[in-house]
């Protein structure tokens, strides 16, 4: 993965994407994602996902429908955007021309809407017809 691409660092060890909290209740795992440039914003954003979504390059195993919690840092903005989401896309290892990772649909709540709007504002200046994405 190049430095200009999005970089994801899971905050828990590899394993199932849902952890068991004390007392036996399941809670979504947390993933952090730092996108350092506009090309990374454009290639990671998944506008075809209802409510918006984000491709996260990772080797972490997951299943469709798993809940995740994303902590996203964009460009030079010091804000850490926290948004819950659900796995809606999996690119397995060895896929031709695409990095391994997960597509995460933003939750349909205020946090998800805020992140979706932020991404759409950032990519508004990128020519959609010529941009390369990590999914389609």
List the helices and strands and how they pair.
Elements: E1 7-10, E2 18-20, E3 26-35, H1 38-44, E4 53-57, E5 67-74, E6 80-91, E7 101-106, H2 110-123
Parallel strand pairs: 3-5
Antiparallel strand pairs: 1-3, 2-3, 4-7, 5-6, 6-7
List keywords for this structure.
single chain; 136 residues; alpha+beta; seven-stranded mixed sheet; 7 strands; disordered N terminus
Mean pLDDT, to the nearest integer, reads: 79
Radius of gyration: 14 Å
H/E element order: EEEHEEEEH
Distance separating the two termini? 18 Å
- Helical content band: 10-25%
Class by alpha and beta content: alpha+beta
- Sheet with the most strands, sense and barrel status: 7 strands, mixed
Q: How many β strands by DSSP?
A: 7
- Overall 3D geometry? globular
Low-confidence stretches: 1-25
Fraction in beta strands: 35-45%
Tally of helical segments: 2
